[in-house]
């Protein structure tokens, strides 16, 4: 790998088959591969894009972004959200969602479907909590 031209090496490392852990391991092998996987470079930007494609629009191309740090921050935020949801009381969850409720959640007007789902879930939690 180390004898390959930089552009070809970047293309290989940006392959969607490789995960963040793979990139981290590759970057620990030698200086040449560590430089190819630099935090502000194309490889970590591509990892970020593959994992969170809708978030890339919030970043300016002119900004000098440490994509490795952004990836870590988003990943850790996701883990924290999972921890919080896992800590919710079982009484906030139902094993069965009725079809009318499911249709209402999926068809309610919002700027994007995930916002609609979040609003509906938050409202359900408020109703259950009272």
Automatic annotation (TrEMBL):
<feature type="domain" description="F-box">
    <location>
        <begin position="2"/>
        <end position="48"/>
    </location>
</feature>
<dbReference type="Pfam" id="PF12937">
    <property type="entry name" value="F-box-like"/>
</dbReference>
<dbReference type="InterPro" id="IPR036047">
    <property type="entry name" value="F-box-like_dom_sf"/>
</dbReference>
<dbReference type="InterPro" id="IPR001810">
    <property type="entry name" value="F-box_dom"/>
</dbReference>
<protein>
    <submittedName>
        <fullName>FBX21 protein</fullName>
    </submittedName>
</protein>
């Amino acid at each position: 790998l180390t004898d390959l031209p930089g552009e070809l090496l970047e293309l290989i490392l940006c392959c969607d088959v490789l995960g963040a852990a793979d990139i981290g391991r590759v970057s620990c092998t030698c200086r040449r591969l560590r430089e190819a996987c630099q935090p502000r470079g194309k490889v970590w930007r591509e990892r970020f894009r593959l994992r969170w494609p809708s978030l890339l629009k919030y970043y300016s191309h002119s900004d000098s972004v440490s994509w490795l740090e952004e990836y870590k921050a988003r990943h850790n935020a996701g883990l924290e959200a999972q921890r919080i949801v896992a800590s919710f009381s079982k009484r906030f969850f139902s094993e069965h969602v009725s079809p009318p409720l499911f249709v209402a959640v999926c068809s309610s007007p919002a700027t994007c479907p995930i916002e609609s789902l979040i609003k509906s879930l938050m409202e359900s939690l408020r109703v259950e909590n009272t």
